[in-house]
Specification:
Distance between the termini: 28 Å
Radius of gyration: 17 Å
Order of helices and strands: EEEEEEEEEEEEEEEEEEEE
Oligomer: single chain
Number of strands: 20
Number of helices: 0
Helix content: under 10%
């Protein structure tokens, strides 16, 4: 099954007076749609845009895997594990909140900062929080690169979820990337233009694929950047 969700249908959240503009893929905070609470193991895919100095004050998470993919600018991160630093484009970060973690995030850039933040269910609950960060180099000739993984992919940040892998690709015009064969695949166009078969996809568009087999995305005019979640399970609460 192929379910295409266009960028302009996302719930617009955040606090624009505070310099925070968020586009949500699923129910989030004060917005609740009982028919759109997640997909596969994902519970949030937030396209975050922060004005200079804007950000999120100290807040708590638990039993959630948080993956941040940088698009533009610089994001300062501090958390109660002692981890602190600034994320920039070409970097990915995972935070496993475990039994509980406090963190803050703010734009540490003189211009706008944009990033994708994605939340998913862990495969086990509790335990100590952890933090992982990696530099990512995407080949210009296409092909998916694992950037966050619960399956031990070299160079990818770690996830406490053995049934999930996040891939990224940068596709030039005409370049292709085969999508994973998996029960649940989530495709998000970070920027640029792509195609899924004959269907055009633009920045912010997403595709939810159930029972994905033998499909690929291709770079359209000018090419584009894409994130692809490969998921082999739904949440288990047992």
């Amino acid at each position: 099954m192929i379910d295409i969700r266009r960028a302009d249908t996302r719930y617009r959240g955040g606090d624009r007076q505070a310099g925070i503009d968020t586009r949500h893929a699923f129910s989030f905070s004060g917005h609740y749609d009982p028919d759109n609470t997640g997909f596969g193991l994902l519970t949030a895919v937030n396209d975050e845009r922060l004005e200079p100095g804007a950000g999120f004050g100290e807040h708590r998470h638990r039993d959630t895997e948080i993956v941040t993919w940088m698009v533009e600018g610089a994001l300062e991160h501090r958390d109660s594990t002692g981890a602190a630093g600034t994320l920039r484009p070409g970097q990915v970060q995972s935070t496993g909140s475990g039994a509980g973690i406090l963190h803050t995030e703010r734009n540490a850039h003189t211009g706008p900062t944009r990033f994708l933040q994605m939340w998913l269910h862990p495969d086990r609950y509790g335990g100590p929080p952890r933090h992982d960060r990696a530099d990512v180099t995407l080949p210009q000739d296409g092909g998916l690169v694992p950037v966050a993984s619960g399956r031990g992919h070299a160079g990818a940040v770690a996830l406490r979820q053995a049934d999930a892998v996040l891939h990224a690709a940068r596709l030039g015009e005409g370049g292709t990337a085969a999508l994973p064969r998996a029960p649940f695949v989530y495709v998000h166009v970070v920027r640029g233009a792509l195609r899924l078969g004959e269907e055009p996809l633009g920045e912010g568009d997403a595709v939810r694929l159930t029972g994905c087999r033998d499909l690929e995305v291709a770079g359209a005019e000018g090419g584009g950047e894409v994130l692809v979640w490969e998921m082999h399970a739904e949440p288990s609460y047992g």
